[in-house]
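Here is a typical protein record:
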Amino acid sequence: MLNLMTYPNAHSKMKSNNDLLDRLFNDSVWNDSFASSRPKANVKEEKDQFVIELVAPGFTKEQININLEKEILTIKGESEKKEQEAARYTTREFVAGDFVRRFSMPDSVDTENITAGFSNGILEIRLPKREENIDRGPRTIKIG
């Protein structure tokens, strides 16, 4: 079962994978005022792994840090460009600045073999499943 969740809801119980995927990023802790500093993420489950894709345009891989501590995966982006407080905007639809995203790792993830790549502003983190948690599909059980 997929238990990968954003950190604020890390201890919530979900009834199904679909329910989890539908509710994964609907944290009441966050509202629209924080949306610009919290990059969007996709989480998908594949047969042998989970994949997190996080949008981080304007960042380089050197400006992004990924840490795993006590089963919490933390992604931090630190921008070299600091906001100019004196700037006067006529329209402002995005804010380029530092960000932090946290995800709770399910027991099914092999945390020793997590990998990450960064290309064209997309951070991709691959979370392989432990061998015993890979779905081998349906099989017939013989009665002894």
In short: The longest strand covers residues 49-55. Residues 5-133 form a domain with the Immunoglobulin-like fold (CATH 2.60.40.790). The radius of gyration is 18 Å.
